[in-house]
Amino acid sequence: MGRLKLQSGINAIEEEPEDSETSFPDKERSALACMINSEIGVVLAVMRRNARWGSRYTSGDDQLEHSLIQSLKALRRKIFSWQHEWYTINPIVYLQPFLDVIRSDETGAPITGVALSSLYKILSLDVLDLNTVNVEDAMHLVIDAVTSCRFEVTDPASEEVVLMKILQVLMACMKSKASVMLSNQHVCTIVNTCFRVVHQAGTKGELLQRIARHGMHELVRCIFSHLRDVDNTDTSLVKGGTSTLQEVGGLHGDYSTGSRQSENDNGTSEYNPQASSGSFASNASTGAISENIVAPGNGKDSDPYDFHLMTEPYGIPCMVEIFQFLCSLLDVVEHMGMGPKANTIAFDEDVPLFALGLINAAIELGGSSICRHPRLLGLVQDKLFCYLMQFGLSMSPLILSMVCSIVLNLYQNLRTELKLQLEAFFSCVILRLAQSRYGASYQQQEVAMEALVDFCRQKAFMVEMYANLDCDITCSNVFEDIANLLCRSAFPVNCPLSAMHILALDGLIAVIQGMAERIGNMSAGSEPSSVHLEEYTPFWMVKCDNYNDPDHWVPFVRRRKYIKRRLMIGADHFNRDPKKGLEFLQGTHLLPDKLDPQSVACFFRYTAGLDKNLVGDFLGNHDEFCVQVLHEFAWTFDFQDMNLDTALRLFLETFRLPGESQKIQRVLEAFSERYYEQSPLILANKDAALLLSYSIIMLNTDQHNVQVKKKMTEEDFIRNNRHINGGNDLPRDFLIELYHSICKNEIRTTPEQGAGFPEMTPSRWIDLMNKAKKTAPFIISDSKAHLDRDMFAIMSGPTIAAISVVFDHAELEDVYQTCIDGFLAVAKISACHHLEDVLDDLVVSLCKFTTLLNPSFAEEPVLAFGDDSKARMATITVFTIANRYGDFIRAGWRNILDCILKLHKLGLLPARVASDAADDSEHTAEPGHGKPPTSSLSSAHMQSVGTPRRSSGLMGRFSQLLSLDTEEPRLQPTEQQLAAHQRTLQTIQKCHIDSIFTESKFLQSDSLLHLARALIWAAGRPQKGNSSPEDEDTAVFCLELLIAITLNNRDRIVLLWQGVYEHISNIVQSTVMPCALVEKAVFGLLRICQRLLPYKENLADELLRSLQLVLKLDARVADAYCEQITQEVNRLVKANATHIRSPMGWRTITSLLSFTARHPEASEAGFDALVFIMSEGAHLVPANYVLCVDAARQFAESRVGQVDRSVLALDLMAGSVSCLARWAQEAKDAMGEEAIKASQDIGEMWLRLVQGLRKVCLDQREEVRNRALLSLRMCLTGVDEVNLPYGLWLQCFDMVIFTVLDDLLEIAQGHSQKDYRNMEGTLIHALKLLSKVFLQLLHDLSQLTTFCKLWLGVLSRMEKYLKVKVRGKKSEKLQELVPELLKNTLVVMKTKGVLVQRSALGGDSLWELTWLHVNNIAPALQSEVFSEQDPGKSWPSTGEIGESLVPSESISVTHKTMVNN
Fold first, then answer.
1. Beta strand spans in 332-417 (E)
2. Which element (helix H / strand E) includes 1369?
3. What percent of the chain has pLDDT over 90?
């Protein structure tokens, strides 16, 4: 029945002890007896001081002794005779004498006061508890006696003392262990009495007033602190029950009443329990506590409790009555409207403040337990909140502050039951008052903003506002409105920063930091998925399966928000063109393809922002479909138990009533039909509702139209509505009430369009309470970031702008720090929710505050930067964001790089900000090599051509301040300057700028790509000609950073390579003179290739092709860096030869090496790389064979360096034949088309080899020329394993052998001995080569049809060589050698049967042509070779002849040992 739990409800209550002696030992019993005895003595002593009591006592006449004294004496006689335990003694026995004194109207205030003090002392000793016999009656007796206290008023001071002691005793009763025995009625009486003391204290001293109010607060707190311990109740309500006590009237009109003096000028306070009138010192000679404020059923709209319930131990019934009474104290402005026009309080703020304080105390202690008790909850939802809305618009800051505190408590404890009430409070109170444009005073604005910030500090508040209100199509966007208000209020527009701006900033930061804190609780897959409506579903019927499970309600609210946004867009289209608006909604599946009346009606009803004129025209249209929509529209309203004028107000607020009478009739018919269906009340039929509605509209126009001079009277209105209720009259009181309602409060037939925040009117409040019964459940948000991304996307832009403006205007360090905290929170949220655009905007805003981008920087920028704490904090923040959240920065990298470049130009960056990571890893990879010379060379050159900075490092820039310039003497720096520099250095160190680049390997791909592009953009496009040193220094620095991040991201080189290559290409092709930029570009490119080739085989061709840029260098640039380039290429080849596989890659490498062949400084390193590749065929492959041979040929032909290098190059060429043999064997072992193709390729390579050697055979240097011929003979005769086709040999004779013989012959005849020394020996070598090769291939060549032509070519060369003149005369050696070689050749041909005389029938051209040529050389050879006279002569074998042709010197090639650097 809603009562306190006796066992667990009050902690102080204990069970009855088994051993009474242990509970009250003898000493305690004696002490209690003595205490009571002393209290009796005190009372008697005070009574003796009064003449009335003292004279009777001293007369000795016992009959004259007053009964009060007798009872006290009787108690004194008994007190020490009791031997039983105190809990077994009836408390009434020792309390009654004191209570009699308190009740007596004969005692004066001092005596009553002492008796009350004694009673308080007994109660405070906890003598009374649940184990005491008859304790319930005793407690009731005490309450009855104290609340009926009567005494003579001797002086105002003593009266105040008595009143205070009454409060004291009543509080002691409520705090007693036995208080649970009090009934609901007694608790109400206690509250009633205390309030009357407060009431009466208005005419007394300040102390009494304060004590009385404090006592009332304590009493309410004591009562409602037990609410959590009360069982859930289902109390029975008695309809028509009568209240035993009545509410006080005129309380707020006259807060205190006067008193009449008695004949002896002593007022008396008396109490007549049968009378309910009178008050303290208000009757003839009495001041009795006789007004009973708190009583069952004293509320106007409440159902009274059963008397039986009121007499049971106290619980919910008394709490409901007390709470209802507290709410009724606020019912003081019934004559005032609830709009802003009536927000001037016409009475003292003391009463509502007192009432609100008591209500706040009750809510604080009752907390969420109120939800378990429907009647209490109902009071909070309706009556209390209605008053809060009303007092929220008070001009008093104190009242507004208290109202906001109560609403905050209600939000914390009961928000699940107050969804629409909270929406109304924020929309109609807080958001209106927090802005000056609605006429609120500065104090109101400040209090409202403070309250709003308090709400924002509640972690879940904004999330719940968004989920429950912004995502509900029937509610306003409270979250958006609050966020926009905070952002706007933080903006100091044309004024200095004020406390209001800082307050709004605090609220904004609180919201943002709440989101940032929830990021750690993000669940997997929490990123929102896009919402699409695939098919039409009635949007007003969308429901959630489970409002407690985020897996259900999160998608649900996102879907609702999507629908709400689409409806708003549809409303915008509708306002421009209704037809197109409806078509748009059909296209988005919010309306069906075939429009139906219900869907259009719900669109009109639930969509905010619609043009109400257009809606009214549509609803009033005579078209059948429009009429159906009108009826469906009327059916969306709930007029249950609503007055006709209230219902009509609500109906007409949603659209503008058309002006045409026919349209008005159709609209009112639809309204009347709906109203009569739901609230027939006293109306006979719907026609009565229609006629009365018409009459109300006419009355409204008559009363509130300024053009109507003669206004309708009350009687006129009643007369106009006769016989309309089914032929009968409506009740006169009913019509009078309607008349005055319309007169006082106009029905607006032209409602305001949706701008601004609405006013809360009584009719709207009734509608709100009806909606609250049907609204969707309140969603409780947990600590996870379910909707933060959606919310942040809405408020991010204004938030960044607001924080930035405050930061810009702020002058205090704590405000700076608050803004910085906000910036970091915004960055964290943006990054974690992948809102790259927001993060970029934040970076752009912050970079402006670093002052590093200001074109008009101070003369001493380092000093200015050190003195500007705002700039330093902004700089640290920028780079903190870059390091923490770089993954999600896109365009913002440009601004960050601008700051870095400015610091670089000022010399404030560490000297190696970009290259540490790259170089460290390089040393690790190549422990055997030192750092490439490019570093020192490049840096030295950069210093010479870069900006003439006085120092380049961080500490160097600092020490520069301490140095003295001899040309311009400077004063020694001051302590302030030194401190500023120190602060600057510390700031740069805290930025960790180098980490951005050294840790770039951890950046996400998109961010990395944007960083690289930003570096390229910051470097600028290289220009042909001379650029300024500052621009070049910037370009070099950016290129260093670009190369660093490229080397640090080898696994993602594909992502970066195109941009890096194009940038370096632009530099190379636009540079015409050596400079640091092109040097950094070239060597950076080589380092990239060197480092990445082992890891990126699929990109090897791209990397190596890029090296072709080196070949495009301007001649002056190439010459300046050729040696260093070659050393890098050498290192690259030695480290990565096995990773270079494609012909294109090798072509680039060999081109670079060949380029060095004629460069004095670079050739050695270039040849060393070639030796590394070709030595013993270590790295020769079919892909690079021809290229390497050609490069070796160029080194052989090069006259740079010693002859030995050319000879070694020829040896490398000759030795490469072994590779051809090996590959030929591998191809032979293989089968198929690939093997055939490989054999053909080998033949082509061999042909290119001998062609290359042929060219070297023409070299001016004798040693080179002769070694080339020997190498050529080796390559021609040592290829038995290669199996070259005959056709290839024919090409070889034509293109190589015959050509080299012809060319040598021409050289011998046409050039002087100075140019070509000892050509005779060269010709001999060439002729021997011809004979050797021809004889070795004779068997195979003789089978060819073109053999005759080939043989004649041999003979013709021998003939020419025989006749050649060297230095003007024929060579004796050739004269001897040619016949000998010819003879041996003819002998071999005869032996092999190649040269034989055939039958003369057809002629024998070979035979005849042979002897024709031979006779020109040596006519006697025919007879010698074919001598028939000496048939038995033995001819040498082919082998023997071959051996005789071999010169004495060995033709074997000894390969020199390859030397590495």
1. none
2. strand 1369-1370
3. 35
355-390: buried (b, 16+ CB within 10 Å) or exposed (e) per residue?
A: bbbbbbbbbbbbbebbebbbbbebbbbbbbbbbbbb
- Lookup: tokens for 1088: 């990239």
For the purposes of burial, counting CB atoms within 10 Å of the CB of 50, is it exposed (0-12), middle (13-18) or buried (19 or more)?
Answer: middle
Q: What is the dihedral of CA 1155, 1158, 1161, 1166, to 10 degrees?
A: 50
Instruction: Provide the whole-model pTM.
Output: 0.78
User: Is the sign of the CA dihedral 76, 82, 87, 92 positive or negative?
Assistant: negative
Q: 1018-1050 burial, b if ≥16 CB within 10 A, otherwise e?
A: bbeebeeeebebeebbbbbbbbbbbbbbbbbbb
* SS3 of residue 1311 by DSSP: coil
End-to-end Cα, the chain, rounded Å: 103
Task: Return the residue matching tokens 């601008």.
Answer: 898
Please say if 660 is a catalytic residue.
yes
Instruction: Answer for the pair 324, 359: CB distance below 8 angstroms, yes or no.
Output: no
Nearby residues of 1451 by Cβ (< 8 Å), 6 or more positions away: 1270, 1273, 1274
Question: For residue 704, how many other CB atoms are within 10 A of its CB?
Answer: 16
1064 in Cβ contact with 1106 (< 8 Å): yes
- The C-alpha atoms of residue 32 and residue 9 are separated, in whole angstroms, by 28
Non-local (6+) Cβ contacts of 379 within 8 A are: 320, 323, 324, 327
Which run of H or of E encompasses 164? helix 156-175
Q: Which DSSP string corresponds to 1322-1360? A: HHHHHHHHHHHHHHHTHHHHTTSTTHHHHHHHHHHHHHH
Give the side-chain half-sphere CA count within 13 A for 430: 29
Identify whether the C-beta of residue 450 lies closer than 8 Å to the C-beta of residue 503: yes
CA distances from 23 to 7, 14, 82, 176 (A): 19, 11, 16, 18
**Phi and psi at residue 412, in whole multiples of 5°?**
-65, -35
Q: What tokens appear for 152 in the block?
A: 């003579």
Provide the token pair at 670. 């639809």
The distance of Cα 472 from the centroid of its chain, to the nearest Å, equals 24
Catalytic residue (choose from 16, 660, 715, 1281): 660
Main-chain dihedrals φ then ψ at residue 681, nearest 5 degrees: 45, -115
pLDDT-based confidence at 1399, cuts 50/70/90?
Answer: low
Within 13 Å and on the Cβ side, how many CA atoms surround 363? 29
pLDDT in tens, 508-558: 999 999 999 998 776 544 566 677 777 788 888 888 888 888 888 999 999
Q: At residue 1004, what are phi and psi to the nearest 5 degrees? A: -65, 155
> Is residue 268 helix, strand or coil?
strand
Under DSSP, the state recorded for 970 is -
Q: Are 382 and 389 in contact (CB under 8 A)?
A: no
Taking CB atoms within 8 Å and a gap of at least 24, the contacts of 587-593 are: 588/533, 589/533, 589/534, 589/535, 589/536, 589/537, 590/533, 590/536, 590/539, 590/563, 590/566, 591/536, 592/536, 593/536
- Hey, how many other C-beta atoms are within 10 angstroms of the C-beta on 1255? 18
SS3 1165: helix
Per-position DSSP letters for 496-559, written without gaps between them: ---HHHHHHHHHHHHHHHHHHHHGGGPPTT-SPPPP---S---GGG---S-TT-HHHHHHHHHH
Task: Kindly report, residue by residue over 132-177, the tens digit of the pLDDT.
Answer: 888 888 889 999 999 988 877 778 888 888 999 999 999 999 988 8
1366: part of which helix (H) or strand (E)? strand 1365-1366
Choose among 531, 604, 533, 536: nearest CA to 571: 604
- Give 294's pLDDT tier (boundaries 50, 70, 90): low
